[in-house]
TrEMBL record:
Molecular function via GO: ATP binding
Residue ranges occupied by any AAA+ ATPase domain in the UniProt entry: 210-375
Source organism of the structure: Nocardia stercoris
Pfam family, any one: ChlI
Assigned keywords, A-Z: ATP-binding, Nucleotide-binding
Family, similarity comment: Belongs to the Mg-chelatase subunits D/I family. ComM subfamily.
SUPFAM superfamilies referenced in this protein's UniProt entry, alphabetically: P-loop containing nucleoside triphosphate hydrolases (SSF52540), Ribosomal protein S5 domain 2-like (SSF54211)
SMART domains reported in the protein's UniProt record: AAA
Gene3D superfamilies tied to this protein: 3.30.230.10, P-loop containing nucleotide triphosphate hydrolases
InterPro entries: AAA+_ATPase, CHLI-like, Mg_chelat-rel, Mg_chelat-rel_C, Mg_chelatse_chII-like_cat_dom, P-loop_NTPase, Ribosomal_Su5_D2-typ_SF, Ribsml_uS5_D2-typ_fold_subgr
Protein name: ATP-binding protein
Length: 503
């Protein structure tokens, strides 16, 4: 009996777990058996691995080969294990020494001719290998820039199984990651391209400063989409920790660029209004994939034509908006993805959407039903509601318009003030602060909360809405450089929460 051993990583959500692959070569008819809850893709790897080994100039064992993946109770999904399976078999056959395999993790899919192909989830897999105490990880050549983002572990790349076999035997060297390129200059649409709409521009600045959610309503062509697309340009760049977190999600989703994979600019995700619940929150058969809410993590999720989106899709946003994460249960387990994003909704006021309200031909019931898809519980989670109107004469003659850089500087100052206030609790923006902390640790003056108490007594806002108004007041206070929100800040925050044209 001959035994071989190699290591790989199973990725669930954005977390990985080390997987030990054991190969046993025994007597019996030539065959390959996989145990350890493999999925269909992994079952098919038997033929891929055998063909790759033979086409790399090595001999496949003649006996009965059993491949066990541990822990046995963890479902194994995908083709990431191909490289480790091939080396484990060769180790069991005595074709390669095991000295370099003890501390190495092997990731990659094999082609029939022995080429090593890129797979999804390389970054979280390398992070898991480092956390497990491994000293070396071998990845496909195409994934070297992505794997090289992780410090504290030696990253090597291989083009073919032949190169890896030579390295294990000590006869050759593998590729190493190139030096990281300098940070690319931020390229975002600029706010100075938007003409007029002073109220909406101010609302966008407040949303950027505090991380608040925003609803824009108005007729077509008025600038709702233009404003939403310029929000990422007002947000600060991601911190190193946030950049790795966001990049890991996009690695699992398979949406990373090849040459410069590190995502440093807040992502902007804008799914089509016909999107499904699965595409929005994530899912799929077998192992759950991240959806739009997770790909927008630490960035902006923009839903244009919000009133045309299915009700179930809109209601599926409630949990991630409240908790900042999404948990998806599927056949192969429960995947948890972070989903802390800024939601920007844009909608027309009615189905016919005329340029002027007086030209509307919709029946009153149809008008109410149109925006009625935006349910009360969902709207209660939106901090700022803005109804946009047509421009007055002479607006296009104006030339003095603030750029994104100018507004971004004010946003940075306001965010720094919020981070200094809430940093000891682990929160970076006002929108993240729970209501009980607002009421106990940072109580507003009595005269400032009087308008909120009046709105609560009259039933104009809910308790959740009151907390959100207080958060919004703190952001407005930070933007003007104040110490504590006053009555004017609170009144402006409440004014931002008036439904206006959405009723």
């Amino acid at each position: 009996m001959a035994l071989g051993r190699a290591f790989s990583v199973a990725v669930t959500g954005v977390t990985g777990q080390l997987v030990e692959i054991e190969a046993d070569i025994g007597q019996g008819l030539p065959s390959v058996h996989l145990v350890g809850l493999p999925d269909t893709t992994l079952h098919e790897s038997r033929d891929r691995v055998r063909a790759a080994v033979q086409n790399s100039g090595e001999k496949w064992p003649d006996g009965r080969v059993i491949l066990a993946l541990s822990p046995a109770t963890l479902p194994k999904v995908g083709s990431v294990y191909d490289l480790a399976l091939a080396i484990a078999v060769l180790d069991a056959a005595g074709a390669v020494p095991s000295a370099r395999l003890a501390g190495a993790v092997l990731l990659g899919e094999l082609a029939l001719d022995g080429r090593v192909r890129r797979v999804r989830g390389i970054l979280p897999a390398v992070l898991a290998a480092r956390a497990a105490g491994r000293d070396t990880v071998v990845v496909p050549e195409a994934a070297l820039p992505e794997a090289g983002l992780v410090d504290g572990i030696r990253v090597l790349g291989t083009r073919t199984l032949r190169e890896l076999i030579d390295w294990v035997r000590g006869d050759g060297a593998l590729l190493v990651p190139a030096a990281a390129p300098p940070p690319a200059e931020r390229v975002c649409a600029d706010l100075d391209e938007v003409v007029g709409q002073d109220e909406a521009r101010w609302a966008l600045e407040v949303a950027a400063a505090g991380g608040h959610h925003l609803l824009l309503t108005g007729p077509p062509g008025i600038g709702k989409t233009m404003l939403a697309q310029r929000l990422p340009g007002l947000l600060p760049l991601l911190s190193p920790t946030e950049a790795l977190e966001v990049t890991a999600i996009h690695s699992v989703a398979g949406t990373l660029p090849g040459d410069d994979p590190l995502i440093t600019v807040p992502p902007f995700v804008a799914p089509h209004h016909s999107t499904s619940v699965t595409a929005m929150v994530g899912g799929g058969s077998g192992s759950a994939r991240p959806g739009a809410v997770s790909r927008a993590h630490r960035g902006v999720l923009f839903l244009d034509e919000a009133a045309e989106i299915g009700t179930k899709v809109l209601e599926s946003l409630r949990t991630p908006l409240e908790e900042g994460e999404i948990r998806i249960a599927r056949r192969d387990g429960v995947a948890c993805y972070p989903a802390r994003f800024q939601l920007i909704l844009a909608a027309n006021p009615c189905p016919c959407a005329p340029a002027r309200d007086v030209d509307c031909i919709c029946a009153p019931l149809a008008r109410r039903r149109y925006l009625g898809k935006l349910s009360g519980p969902l709207m209660d989670r939106i901090d700022i509601w803005v109804q946009m109107h047509g421009q007055a004469s002479g607006t296009f003659a104006a030339t003095e318009v603030e750029s994104s850089a100018t507004v971004r500087a004010r946003v940075a100052v306001a965010r720094a003030a919020a981070a200094a206030r809430w940093g000891e609790f682990g929160w970076a923006t006002n929108a993240e602060v729970p209501g009980h902390i607002l009421r106990r640790r940072q109580r507003l003056p009595r005269e400032a909360v009087t308008p909120i108490e009046s709105a609560l007594r009259l039933g104009r806002i809910s308790a959740r809405g009151a907390d959100r108004a207080v958060r919004l007041a703190w952001t407005i206070c930070d933007l003007r450089g104040g110490e504590v929100p006053g009555a004017e800040d609170v009144l402006q925050a409440l004014n931002f929460r008036q439904r206006g044209g959405t009723s």
